[in-house]
Every structure is written in structure tokens, then in C-alpha cells.
Amino acid sequence: MTVRVQRKFDSRLRVIKYVLLFVWAAIAARLVWIQIIHRDKFAQAAESQQNVQIEIQPRRGAIYDCQNRVLAQDVDSYSFYVIPDKIVEKELAAQRLEAVTKCGGWLEKFKNHRRFLWVARKTTPEIQLAISRAGIPTLDSIVESRRVYPAGDLALAVLGRVDIDNKGISGIELQYDSLLSGKPGTALLKRYGKKRTFIFHDELYKKPENGLDIVLTLDLDLQQIVEQELKAGLENYGGISATAFFVRAGSGEIAACASIDSNGAPARRNRAIADMYEPGSTFKIVAVASALESGRFSPNTIVDVEGGKYRVDDRVIRDDHAYDKLTVEEIVVHSSNIGAAKLGLDLGDYTIYKMITDAGFVKKLAVDFPGEVSGQLQRPPWRDHYLANVCFGHGISATPMQMTMLYDAVTSGGKLTLPYFGKEVVYEDGSRRLLRNLPEGKQIMTPTTAALLRRFLREVVASGTAKRADSAIVELAGKTGTALKAIKNKGYDHSKSVASFVGYFPADFPDYVGIVVFDEPKKSRYGGEISAPVFRRIAERFSMLPGKLDKPVVKKSKAVIEKKAAPSKPKPDSLMGVMASLKVDKENNGQFTTPDLKGLTIRQALIYAREMGIACDFSGSGIVVEQSPSAGEPIEPGTIVRLRCKSD
Predict the structure, then answer these.
(1) What is the rounded distance in angstroms from the CA atom of residue 309 to the CA atom of residue 254?
(2) What span, in angstroms and rounded, lies between the C-alpha atoms of 189 and 200?
(3) pLDDT digits (tens, 9 = 90+) for 176-215
């Protein structure tokens, strides 16, 4: 009996052993299948269950103005998230979230984002406090960078804005996004054991690379003055919008660019670059420059302007003021449509078209800003009436920026420069490099023609259509423009206009060139009555700020301008000595005589000659070695002295 029991026990024991061996073999096989054969698959599943990878944004580069004042920068802020799978009372949590975020649909979001859900990103301190006090289960936060603009909406149309992920979506923020944005990093949200809570892993998978800082050509002071005066102008004169654009003369550096809507708020659209308009009479200098360049006309050439009414083809061209005859200079000063039209008709459409295209119209100026338009103009051949219209600024569409750069060329000896915003990029070690390598400016007219146009434009302000731009603080020069608004396929609406003024200051040696444009002003349609006084106030306010102009602001009286003669030759290295030595030569009975400019630098010679009321045309660079007329010869005010310069 005992043996039988023992055998039975041994038999059962063997069965158990075999079963256990089979179980262990199955477990081993399962482990091999999981850990070896399908290791990557299950490792990925485990990691997916335990970890959530979150993108960590880099700090976006700051944007500065030309004096290193902050225009845009990143600050630390809190972004909040929840883990919907761990929220027990989802309806209550959804109600609380709706109360603090002022948006609904949270229950649906819980279903669609069970493991991780953003509640609010880059919050302000007020929202941070409200969310943290709401008592929402699993709520936690991380620190992210939030874009702020210390000057508020100042220069809004230029700077643009970023989206929630700190990516540029408009303006300079978009244009230089690749430099400003940097490269994002990644961080880990990890779930441990039975607590099943998420925390940030101590180590980043990848550290973010912060963006680079950039310096713009904008001057915050001028930008603020421009926006304030445009807003005041809209309040005084009415209109759909007001736009202004200013550059530093001869450099292409954009110092201010603004658009204000009728409600007084800064526009998000940069109309100076992205919108076209018919420039009207400000465009007349193209026809006048072409006439002077042709050699067939001089400033004193007389043009019959037909008593203010002139038929071309089947249309009649009219002037606002009736004159019988005007000189070429007076065509600019008194803004004669008929005079400009006759110059163009004499020269022909291809000559006018060449000057227009050479001056940067009908093509983009390649400014570093998104959305630039090129303008519009028909290609020749043109009907006579269309040619006449183009010569006084109708039938052609341009941007305020293009018009400003044309007048900048006039102040720069006839050389057209390209405008730009981006000046420098700043690296983490503090080193800097230029953002753009600009090509050499294109000569679109001779320095002689440019000098004559400067004389004409000063006279426009002194005695012509822009008298309301004349200032007791700083001398201005420029041209008014009044263009009727076109009705598609129906001609022009005589009740609506675009009023503008393009000019520069100081008139004797320009530092800044700019334009002011009002779209559909209500109190008047004329640029001389609307835009010119706004331009004047901008120039006066800015000129009075210390250190803004190359020369101190001095408004010359007529007595000072009347009659001067050449002093004894000043020292070339002393510009103040040059200016201090001006006096009347009694031996010549107070008549102007040509000053001795030899040995001076170009800059000294130009300033000196301008103070004497003399225009200069120069060739070469460096020091003046020859001049014509010679020193001491009697000349009339406005005579052009030709200089030949040579480098040391």
C-alpha cells in the first residue's frame, strides 16, 4: 500500500514538474519573443506609455532700433497643461476651464487629447493667477518665452507680429524669422510607477538654440513723431488713412515708416511698401529731369502753358492756376500740368519711359520687407493723352517708398540708392555684422540736373504750391501732389483725391527725405494744404531733438542769403573755419564771386558752396583739385560750379 501511494505521488510530482517546465519554457519563449524578437516594438510602446515629448521653444532674438532701443523681445511666461486621462470629474474640470479661459469645447478636447492638453500658453500674470486658483485636477505649468513690444503698437506695420509658437507671421518678424527664431529643443514628460503622474525629466533631449538679435535702421523718435502727426492730421483733415515714409538721405536707411487708419490706430498693413497710388504732381520732376538731361531745355526755357487749358487728343488738360507762359523752373514751382505735359510730348514716350524705369518705378526696389509691389505703367508706345497724363502723375501707379527714393536721388547728386530696414545682426558673443551688402547706387541723372531740381524744390516751398511747408525752424524743400482717385473704367472721381508732399530737410544739406500721403482727405483735396503742413511739423519736431541732424538747425533769414562774396581760402581741415569765414567782398560792391574751393574735401566744398547759395557739380572723389569758374570770378546766385576731385 505504501509503495503504491509512493508511486502515485511520484507520478503526480512528475506531472507537476513537466507542467512547471512547460510554463517556464512558455515564459522563457515569451520573454525571448518580447525582449529579443520584438524588442523594438515593445520598447517603443513602453516609451509611448511612459513618456510624452514636448518641444521647447528657443528664446527669440530681440529687435532694436538704430540707437539700440528695444522694439521687440522675449520675456518668460507660464504655459499651463492638464492630463485628461487622470481627471476624474471631467465635466467639473471643463466648467472651470471655460470660466477662466473664456472658451468652450473642453470635454471634446479631453477626448481628443487624452494624455496631454495645453490649457493656456504664454499667459499674462493676470491669467496665470486665475488659472492657478481654479482648482483644476492635474494642472501643471512650464516656462515659455512670450513676445512683447515695449513701445506697444508703435511701428506695428513694420515690426509685424509672431504666432503662438513665436514664428514670424508678418513684417520684419517674418522677413528675418530665420535669424530671430533660433532652433527648438525637446523635453520629456515622464510617468513613474503606480502614481502615474507626469513630471518633466531633468534632462532635455535637445537644448534649444536661441535666436540672434538684429538692429534696424528705424529711429524710434522719428517713428513716434510721424505716427503722432499722422494721427493728428487725420483728426484735423479727415481721410481713409495717412501714410509716411522717411529715409536718411543718400544711405537707403529707412528711419520711419507708418500707416494710420481713419480710427487713429496704427495699420497692420504697410501701405508705404505694399500699396500703390497715383502720385500726381510730385511725379512732375521726372518729366522736368528728362527735359534738363536732354540738353534741349534749361531752367529758363519758356513754355507756353496755354492760359490754363490745353487739348490733347480728345481730352482737355487744365491747371489749377492759369498762366500764359512759364519757365521750366516755374513749371515745378507753380505745379503746371500743362507745362509738364508739354515737356513730355516734346521729348517723346520712350524718353520719359526710360527715365521712369531708371528711377526705380515699375519694378521692385528689393526692400527687405514682405509684400512689396512694383507699381504699374503701360509700356510704350503711348497715345499723346496718356503720355501727357503720365508726365503729371496720372496713369501711373507707384508706392510711397518709390516716390521717396526718387527724391532721395535728387538730394544725392542723382544717384538712386536701395532702401532697407535691417542694419546689423548681433551674435551671442556681442559681435556684429551687416545684415545686407547693398549694391552701389545707380546714377539716374547728372549731379547738375539734381542740383537744379534741388533749387526748384526749395523754391516750391519758399514761393510756390508748398508755402505751408515753409518753416521758421528748419528749411524744407519738396513738392506737393494732388491726384484724383480713379474710377475703374470710368475716369476720375473729382470729389476724392490722394494728397501728398515729398520733401527733405534741411534744404541746404539734406539729412532726411520723406513723404506724407493722405487718402481721401475731407477738408481739402490738395497736398499743399493737407500733407505739406504735416510734413513741416514732423521735420520741426524731429530737428529740434539734440543730435538728430548732422548740422545744427539754423533758419537763415533773407538778409543773410542776399549777397556774399568769397572769403580768403579756409583751411581744408577746418569745416567750422570754412563756415565762420563767410563775408561780403566790398571790392566787388557786394557782388557774389566764386569761392576758392580747391584743397577742400567734397563734403566741405558742398556745405561751403551751399551756404554761399552756389550749386556744385563734381566728378571724382577726395579733395577738390580744379574748379570752374575759377576762384574770384563774379557769378550770380544759383550758378553751378564744376569741381574735379582726386583722392590723396
Answers:
(1) 40
(2) 5
(3) 999 999 988 877 666 555 444 455 545 556 778 899 999 9
